[in-house]
Amino acid sequence: MKISTRRVAALFSGAALVLAGSVLVAPTAQAATSCVTTANTSNYRTVACSTITSKSSTFVVADSDGVINSTGQTATLECSITKSATVSMSVSTTLEASVKAGILADFKASVGVSMSASVTTESSIKTSVSVPAHKTILCERGIVKYTLKGQTVYTTTNMATGSTSKSTKTWTIAGPTSKTWKLVQQ
Which of 15, 87, 116, 182 has its CA 20 to 30 A from that of 27? Predict the structure, then answer.
């Protein structure tokens, strides 16, 4: 069967006119879902699919210091911290290790940092700060902590009958990612 190029062009331009007259709607963004098999026997198989529904970060202050530049020019001053703090990971409910690992891998992929089991700031640390004339800098040493909320849907399949059952577990994971300085000009 031979189709002329004019005929093909007319078909494509007709399709383009239909698309041009349509309202195109972009797909809504969906949270990443990670699935792992948590049980696999000859009788049953359970797959757990987890979705992070929200994430937020906070800065947990271990200690702070302030430096005041009362001169008429920029000065380099030193902030000194003498207290430490520890932030540890917490999970609101029991999750299988493979399920938790999948959730934390999704978090790292979306944010670019890993959540640690525990982070401790130093008990004695100093940093030099450039302070503009007649300004004050508040130096805070602390830990960035993320809180993740989400759910895991467990689907269990009876291998003999093919029937399935589902259950949902909601969870909150809070944990540290890094220790850092936060400098606030006042």
Answer: 15
21 assigned to some structural domain: no
- Decide if pLDDT at 31 tops 50: yes
In a domain, 5, yes or no: no
Q: Could you report the per-residue pLDDT of 138-147, keeping only the tens digit for each? A: 999 999 999 9
Instruction: Judge whether 19 lies within some domain.
Output: no
Q: Is 14 part of a structural domain of the chain?
A: no
In the chain, where do the E strands start and end? 33-40, 44-69, 75-81, 86-88, 90-91, 118-120, 125-131, 135-158, 164-185
Mean pLDDT of the chain: 83
3-class secondary structure per residue, 116-149: CCEEECCCCEEEEEEECCCEEEEEEEEEEEEEEE
Q: Which domain holds residue 85?
A: 26-185
Structure-model confidence comparison of residues 31 and 38, the more confident one = 38
The residues, ordered by sequence, that sit 6+ positions from 94 with a Cβ below 8 Å of its Cβ are: none
Query: Rg (Cα) of the chain, in Å, rounded?
Result: 28
CA atoms within 13 A on the CB side of 11: 6
pTM of the complete model: 0.73
